[in-house]
Specification:
Helix content is 52%, strand content 12%. It contains 16 helices and 12 strands. The strands form 3 sheets. Strands 3, 4, 5, 6, 7, 8, 9 and 10 form an 8-stranded parallel beta sheet that branches. Strands 1-2 form a two-stranded antiparallel ribbon. Helix 5 packs antiparallel against helix 6, helix 5 packs parallel to helix 7 and helix 10 crosses helix 11. The longest helix has 30 residues. The protein is globular. The two termini are 22 Å apart.
Length: 455
């Protein structure tokens, strides 16, 4: 394992979209983080049951989606693109189905590249099915085995990247979000989540290395994005969701510690912290993800991106065409603009415009500001251990939001200010020792079965 004791980036001027300190270069020459922004299109099925009998229709949909994207890529002279397949639960529970979907997408993109020279790559993201009453154990049993079999089979079909939105600790974190319990959030992400990542990611990296492909990264989508969406609906405070976002970076870096090389996956907005600490490229989503969920970070999410994504869109017909093709066009034009700014030496101006347009209006955007990200990241890595890092991340997030408000750089209403104070008090009251913290929290987690984590 590689433990990060210092940030990869030192200077803010080097921390910008399209460029990563450690780019990922594919066999076809695409270099993610090598200076060019590429679109990453993510898509899913229209509403339908996924059964053995329905698989011909499932494959027809994926064929239609990817064929339309490839055609539009040629028409728009796209220099390259990434297509992400997020398998739906039945496709991981039945690995052969997910593998066949992956093969269908890979074959079309490779054929398009061979015929027309449009470079393409495929990211496969098996759905983490390790949830529910039927789960035997996090690291053994049919759910675990089905996931690894899906990874293995998709790697053999020619996928370029492997990612996952892993769920270790999610049963506790869902409760933490519901009650705005920052201690449980830290426990779920740093104790349960990091433990799970250290079990899962060596297996993913092993499969990737054996098949000559790239283990890309993990995201805390089920944790931090759940909080973000709840905050956007005014169910929970925005400062709580913002704090969770920064804490989640501690967990997501663990994939890179275990050998992941990037690009970090789009729905993990904590990817900006992962990039700051590790130097690996990241995929991000913002305004172009409105087809999947609303957010307060539509522009600022692009500041440090190396791939620009849409989260996911169903294969339904819009006035302009099928939705995945429409979404791909939107991503392409965003990337064109960013690449043009880079060519003209204006990438830093573009980055700062993205940041300034969002960060004042919402704390969830403010904690994604390049300067805030880099300052917090430099302090997080000084701590030893996941729990101390998570605790420090929470304290720093709150301190920066408070500073931003006092300086007039961040708008917070009275409710948010009250919660800012409450969360600070909760963090200050936490034990310094991981074992003492774990013993304190374990008995409060109603949905946690410790035996499934060997605890």
């Amino acid at each position: 394992m590689k433990l990060f004791k210092a940030t990869a980036y030192e200077n803010l001027a080097d921390f910008v979209y399209g460029k990563a300190l450690y780019p990922v270069t594919l066999k076809n020459g695409m270099s993610i983080g090598g200076g060019t922004m590429y679109p990453e299109i993510n898509f899913t099925l229209p509403e339908m049951l996924i059964t053995k009998e329905a698989m011909p229709e499932v494959l027809r949909n994926y064929t239609e989606i990817v064929t339309g994207i490839c055609e539009r890529a040629r028409e728009l002279a796209v220099p390259g693109f990434v297509a992400e397949i997020e398998t739906l639960p039945p496709m991981t529970e039945n690995p052969a189905w997910g593998i066949e979907v992956c093969k269908t997408v890979v074959d079309i993109i490779k054929e398009n590249e061979a015929k027309y020279g449009i470079k393409g790559a495929v990211r496969i993201t098996p759905n983490d099915i390790r949830e529910g009453k039927e789960l035997e154990h996090m690291w053994r049993g049919r759910h675990w085995e089905a996931m690894l079999k899906t990874f293995e089979g998709c790697a053999k079909t020619g996928a370029d990247f492997m990612s996952i939105e892993s769920v270790g600790g999610k049963e506790v974190h869902d409760e933490a979000v519901m009650y705005c319990d920052i201690a449980k959030s830290i426990f779920a992400l740093s104790v349960l989540g990091c433990t799970d990542m250290n079990k899962l990611w060596p297996e993913i990296v092993k499969i990737a290395d054996k098949n000559g492909i790239i283990a890309a990264g993990d995201t805390a989508c089920g944790f931090a994005n759940t909080a973000m969406v709840m905050a956007e609906k005014n169910y929970i405070p925005k400062v709580f969701a913002s704090t969770v976002r920064v804490i989640s970076a501690v967990r997501s870096v663990v994939a890179v510690e275990n050998g992941a090389k990037g690009p970090h996956k789009d729905c993990g907005y904590e990817g900006v912290y992962v990039k700051a600490i590790t130097g690996t490229p990241i995929s991000m989503e913002g305004k172009t993800a409105a087809c999947a969920h609303l957010s307060p970070v539509g522009n600022i999410a692009a500041c440090m991106a190396d791939l620009w994504s849409n989260e996911s869109v169903q294969n339904i017909r819009l006035l302009g065409g099928m939705a995945p093709t429409v979404s791909f066009e939107q991503l392409t034009y965003d990337c064109r603009l960013m690449n043009e700014a880079t060519k003209k030496g204006q990438s830093l101006l573009m980055r700062d415009l993205y940041a300034d347009s969002d960060s004042r209006l919402n704390p969830q955007a403010y904690v994604l500001r390049p300067n805030v990200v880099l300052e917090i990241s430099k302090e997080i890595v000084k701590e030893d251990g996941y729990y101390p890092r998570a605790k420090k991340a929470a304290a720093l997030a709150l301190a920066h939001m408070e500073k931003g408000y006092k300086n007039g750089d961040l708008e917070l209403d009275d409710r948010e200010l009250t919660w800012l104070e409450n969360l600070n008090e909760a963090i200050d009251a936490l034990p310094a020792d991981t074992e003492a913290f774990t013993a304190q929290i374990m008995g409060e987690c109603e949905k946690l079965d410790p035996k499934k984590y060997d605890m």
